[in-house]
Amino acid sequence: MASLLKELPSMTTILSVYASISGLSMLIRTILNEMIPRGMREYIATKFSDFFAAYFSSDFTFIIEDRWQAVENETFRAVEVYLPTKVGPSTRTKSLLLGTNDTNNITAPPKPGIPIDAKVVDFFQGMHFEWSLCEKEAKKYYHRHKRYFQLKCKKNYREQVMQSYLPHISNTAASILNKRETLNIYTYDIEDSMWESTVFKHPATFETLAMDPDLKKFIIEDLDLFVQRKGYFQRVGRAWKRGYLLYGPPGTGKSTLVAAIANYLSFNVYDLQLQGVRNDAQLRRILTSTTNRSILLIEDIDCSTKSSRSRNQNKNPKEDRKEEEEEEEDQLENKISFDPGVTLSGLLNFIDGLWSSCGDERIIIFTTNYKEKLDPALLRPGRMDVHIYMGHCTPAAFKKLAFTYLGIKDHVLFKCIEELIQSTVTTPAEVAQQLMKCDKPQVALQNLIEFISSKETEMVGKDGAKKHEEEVIKEEVIKCRIEDMKQDVRQSKILTTSVYLT
Q: Among the CATH numbers 3.40.640.10, 3.20.20.140, 3.40.50.300, 3.30.2130.10, which is that of 189-389?
């Protein structure tokens, strides 16, 4: 034993050899760094890492990115919904994301989320899984960051993951979404190229909606039929979607009806402003990033000139040219750079073209104050399947508003108000505004009578002035026509005289 100890090198010798090896390795690393470009070094390191991982590691990694080709990755969305349910006190993670988007309730308990690079452990049928959410810079300019989940497991779990575990996650996520208590309303952030959401808690329902009972019944039955006919749409070869056009004067309840539909179906709302979209390509990316079981809302579609103007007709080329020149002058004055904008063809390609099949169970709702301004191509069935006129207040709608705001079903003043409403154009929003001024039915109804009466007086005055103006214009037109006829007679006499002299 003593002889064996004598043959071992001393500590000084060991440290000297280690220092020599370290110095040599540092020298070699420096030389390689100088001679081999950084990209090549990273490539070689990656290949060595993959080689050792493939032959010496028993782990396997699944990558689930947030987008799959041109659309949102539904598997990513399912995992995003599923994983927070696995976050608890026993979760092996050093950090936890908490927050709430319920702006209406500051005391709402925060909901857990998965922060970037945090690890979540899950167990399924005796198998151990480790999840992590990662983020990296996107290559394309319209996606600043790309998020993806990493799922690490044993190699021999691959088949179980594909056949059992991922379907379990999708079914659990679907169950959670179907039972969700809160809805979200989304708006698109053009700069960050992403939808941003907040809690949608609009109180409107079909019970509180001031609308003709027959029309309300028709809408409810149409919605029920739509959500129950998935197999029918597949059998006839059509995309599972439904288009609605809500048209009528301002203040007639178009937005309120949208809220009632969202609450009835438990669908999230995607509110898209076409005026902020640069071109058709960006519009396609925006629309394909919406989720199933949702409402796509495009309000005031008539305000988007390129989507409302006819593609094949120019009824008055001079007026169109004048409008274009005015737009060019405004852009030069304000020095605003602009893109071609959304075209009608680009919009139609999503709602009724090949891209309309990218998603299921969707409601597309357009609103407009002026239906006559829309291109006929937008109005045909398949694009806007149901046209709903949101007109002025009717006696039935008034009674519903009175019950909603005042809690009364009948009153001695009802008959008088109903007669005034039938003879004077009044919107439901105006009626509701008057009823909200006082909790006492008698006072509120008297205020409403005074409002409608004053409005009727103003309209009579305007009609009289308008009628007088029309008569004056008509007289001027007649005078102009008479002068034109006289001028034609003079020209005819001159022409006849010249011919005779010739």
A: 3.40.50.300
